[in-house]
Specification:
Blueprint: E1 2-6, E2 18-21, H1 29-45, E3 49-55, H2 58-62, H3 74-83, E4 88-93, H4 96-99, H5 103-114, E5 119-123, H6 136-146, E6 149-153, E7 157-158, E8 161-162, H7 165-173, H8 177-184, E9 189-193, H9 200-203, E10 209-212, E11 222-230, E12 237-246, E13 257-262, E14 273-283, H10 291-312
Parallel strand pairs: 1-4, 2-3, 2-5, 3-4, 5-6
Antiparallel strand pairs: 7-8, 9-14, 10-13, 11-12, 11-14, 12-13
Helix pairs in contact: 5-6, 7-8
């Protein structure tokens, strides 16, 4: 997949795509429906399959001090889109200049002049242009005038209501990654590079791979059964694990992170790119009275994770 970032106009080899457009945070089933509609157009016309998205997320631009809300980083989103077979990813820089563009200018200057798209697919709730004045229907009209095909995809519904990033965040906050996975169409994953920690786990007999959670929505704190994928380096491959997500209350005040004990693994992972899928929430985070009690609970957690993962993965 070719990944284009910033404002630079796209050159001829990467133009002419049939592209899905949106923020695609989480790349959930609703997003996948939009991408699949673009895929059908691309297959029918021989065009590359594209995705147009925005970085940073417009919500972060307009409310920079709001609590973290993203389900995935831009890199994790790119990985997911590549797995869906996207050929061209256009990450438009969302800044003051883009936010001030009218709906008409966005279509003529960005979609036509800069990206050279031949078709665009959006969800029925898509908004664009200054003050979010542009609707999906408005995009269809402007696209027709500019010579770009436009498809408006219906919203995807779930048993409890429409599939949305908001509903997925609520499920994760409740410690229900299984419900989130049903809406996502895949396990919720946290990706990043393994950082050096304080190595307490190593001293306790449970060395962990540590990931920062900066900028991400925080799922419910506690212990999780996880899938653990190493994306590069000598240990590249798929593993299983027991992970603690939270602030480690026994050891003072700490920033939230994700610490994973990788089952049946031996080796160094510092600096490796990894992807951790939350499969099941076992219990909440607890401050135990002593290290011995903590280790006994960790023994039970690992055994419970093995049983859960054997059933679900």
């Amino acid at each position: 997949m070719d990944r284009h970032t910033g404002h630079t106009p796209i050159g001829p080899p990467h133009r002419g795509a049939a592209a899905a457009m949106g923020n695609f945070d989480g790349v959930h089933r609703g997003h996948q429906a939009v991408i699949d509609a673009a895929r059908r157009v691309a297959a029918a016309t021989g065009a590359p399959l594209g995705v147009v998205t925005f970085e940073p997320h417009p919500r972060r631009f307009f409310a920079p001090n709001a609590p973290p809300f993203r389900l995935m980083t831009a890199t994790a989103r790119a990985h997911r889109l590549a797995r869906l077979g996207v050929d061209q990813l256009y990450e438009l820089t969302f800044d003051a200049a883009l936010s001030e563009r009218s709906a008409e200018a966005f279509v003529s200057d960005v979609l036509v002049r800069d990206l050279g798209l031949q078709h665009v697919v959006v969800g029925a709730d898509f908004r664009f242009g200054k003050n979010r004045a542009g609707t999906a229907d408005r995009l269809a009209a402007l696209g027709a005038a500019a010579g770009i095909g436009v498809t408006v995809a219906d919203l995807v519904a779930f048993e409890a209501g429409p599939v949305s990033s908001t509903a997925i965040r609520a499920a994760l906050s409740a410690g229900k990654p299984e419900i989130a996975a049903e809406m996502l169409g895949h396990w919720h994953r946290i990706e990043g590079r393994v950082e050096h920690g304080e190595k307490r786990g190593r001293d306790l007999g449970y060395p962990t791979a540590n990931l920062a959670l900066d900028g991400l929505h925080l799922p419910r704190f506690g212990v999780y059964a996880v899938k653990f994928d190493v994306l590069d380096g000598p240990h590249r491959g798929a593993y299983l694990g027991a992970a603690s997500l939270g602030v480690r209350p026994m050891f003072g005040e700490n920033r939230p992170n994700l610490e994973t004990f990788v089952l049946d693994f031996s080796g160094e992972l510092y600096g490796a790119a990894v992807s951790v899928a939350l499969v099941a929430h076992l219990r909440d985070e607890v401050a135990y009275e002593g290290v011995e009690a903590l280790v006994r609970q960790m023994d039970r957690d690992v055994e419970n994770c093995r049983k859960i993962l054997a059933e679900r993965v």
